[in-house]
Amino acid sequence: MLRPLAPNVFKRRLADRTTQLGFWLSMNSLAATEIAAGIGYDWVLLDMEHSPYDLETVERHLLAARHGGDAEFVVRIPSIDPILVKRLLDAGVRSFMYPFVQNEAEAALAVAATRFPPDGIRGFSGNSRSSRYGMQAGYHPTAHEDICIILQVETPQAVAAIPEYCRHGGVDGILVGPNDLAANMGRLGGTQHPEVLAKIDEARALTQAGGKAAGMLDFNLETCKKLLAEGFNFLAVGGDTASMSRYAKQLLKDFGR
Known about the structure:
alpha/beta, TIM Barrel, 12 helices, about 260 residues, eight-stranded parallel barrel, about 45% helix, globular
């Protein structure tokens, strides 16, 4: 008998506002996913939006992450696509990040795509990995208890809509995309501009006032520490491509090159 999956600790800690550090995966390396999942991060994120992952490769990375360790495997999908979400759910993914959510209707669709009727529009499959191929009794009526949904805000319009997003019980967290937010404020590349920083903090405050966990993406140690001190609950603090390029450049520098 296949062992049942452990509860989604990441989801529960978001609800508790416990600090959780994450690692971003973009290189399509199974080894990188396996290592990151077991090295001590609370969550790892596979980025389907900006990296060359398809459904089959996501499945392989999911299995690599579960073999590697206990970090929760999160997938950032390219868009709010209920068909893709359904197939990823059936493949065993249970934590999702939706990019560029712009209004309440999109937030509602993001939630509905992960829920069975009458609470949503997810199609029923009785023999997929999600239910341990039909061997996990009671999966379908309780699946939502371990499905985690993070909405990403990347425009001033989206920041203003955060109170509406937070009204949806299925939303677990709101993550600010600082680079796109800066670009959509007319400050391309200006994530540290005072206007952008103020908007990021506004997003944090609105999210926490709405009872949800507030997240950010920042690969700089000092600014990450500042964000945690300001009250952000979950942060992506590094990634495979950034770590490799930084170490490779530093190694050359150490050799005087």
